[in-house]
Every structure is written in C-alpha cells, then in structure tokens.
C-alpha cells in the first residue's frame, strides 16, 4: 500500500475557492480512481488555510494513474492559482500490521 501526505497552503483571500477545489478534487478522485483506498483533507485548527491530504493507494501504479489522470491535472491546475506556496508531498510505502 502507498500512503501520501500532501501539505497544502491556500492564499487567505482565496480560501473558499481553495476549499471548493479540494472538495472537487476529492470527489473526482473517489469517483474515477479504482486504486484509491482513501482520500481525505483536513484543515488546521491553528493555521487557517493550511491543509493536509492523506491518501491511501493500492500500489504505486494506482497512484501514478491518478497523477496522470485528466481529472487530477485539471483539479490541481485549478488549485495552483490559489496556492500560497508549493505543496510539500511525502510518499510512503506502508505495510499493514496488527496491534
């Protein structure tokens, strides 16, 4: 399994548009990417406009298909106009384990 943590920052004056763009990207990803196990955004309670997206993918191929998909390219490009700074994206290879 592949896990992605994407840290994102919106320009304060475009916060509502950025949130709407994140919602649209989430919906299109969940509807179009069969290798997506989870795709969630959260906004910081201490830093308005700071978000984290936590994604889970079946494998690297599924993640690459997502990154290459038209809905991702269009959604990401729409967010670019409202970003306060570049995203900090971290990709992990995850192995489920029992407690």
UniProtKB/TrEMBL annotation:
Q: What is this protein called?
A: Quinol monooxygenase YgiN
Tell me if Oxidoreductase is a UniProt keyword of this record: yes
What highest taxon heads this organism's lineage? Bacteria
Which species?
Glycomyces sambucus
Q: Which Gene3D superfamilies match?
A: 3.30.70.100
Q: From the Swiss-Prot or TrEMBL record, what is one GO molecular function term?
A: monooxygenase activity
According to its UniProt record, what is one Pfam family this protein matches? Answer: ABM
State the PANTHER family in the record: ABM DOMAIN-CONTAINING PROTEIN, QUINOL MONOOXYGENASE YGIN-RELATED
Residue runs in coiled coils: none
Keywords from the UniProt entry = Monooxygenase, Oxidoreductase
Enumerate the spans annotated as ABM domain: 2-92
What PROSITE patterns does this protein's entry cite?
ABM (PS51725)
